[in-house]
Amino acid sequence: MKISDLSPVARKRLFLVLVAVVPIVIITITITAVSAAIQVPPAAATDATQNTLDVPMLALSSMLAVTLTSIAAGYALARSGVAAISSLVEKPEGFFKAFLVVTLCEAIAIYGVVVAVLLWTKIPAL
């Protein structure tokens, strides 16, 4: 069965379910991975100069950097992408401007990944 065989109402319902479920699954996987990284064994905290909360806070902040910027980029892309496509229907010569707007929205998520990698490299080896 193809998606094109479904009625328009069923396609819209399927789309809404996917839009609601996929971000929740991604956030759950991210939180699970970070919670596994946050658990610091007591032997790792033997250095008196290192705070025991450094590792969990760096891991949590890198998770938040990726998650929040991805949600923000998705929201911005949803809003500006619709406007860009509708403007291209009326004036096809504005393709570069529409492409630039959509690309800038996707750059938000890339900035979040860069910040998360920079934070992740600050985590000391256990």
Question: Can you count the helices?
Answer: 3
Report the CATH C-level class of the largest domain: Mainly Alpha
SSE arrangement, N to C: HHH
Query: For the residues shown, what is the average pLDDT?
Result: 77
Radius of gyration: 21 Å
> Beta fraction of the residues?
under 5%
Biggest sheet descriptor: none
Number of domains: 2
Approximate helicity band: over 70%
**How many E-type strands?**
0
CATH superfamily membership of the largest domain: F1F0 ATP synthase subunit C
What would you note in describing this structure?
- The protein has 126 residues and is an all-alpha fold.
- The chain folds into two domains: 1-36; 53-126, F1F0 ATP synthase subunit C (F1FO ATP Synthase), CATH 1.20.20.10.
- 75% of the residues lie in helices and 0% in strands.
- It contains three helices and no strands.
- It has helices at residues 8-38, 54-90, 95-121.
- The radius of gyration is 21 Å and the shape is flat.
- The relative contact order is 0.11.
- The mean pLDDT is 77.
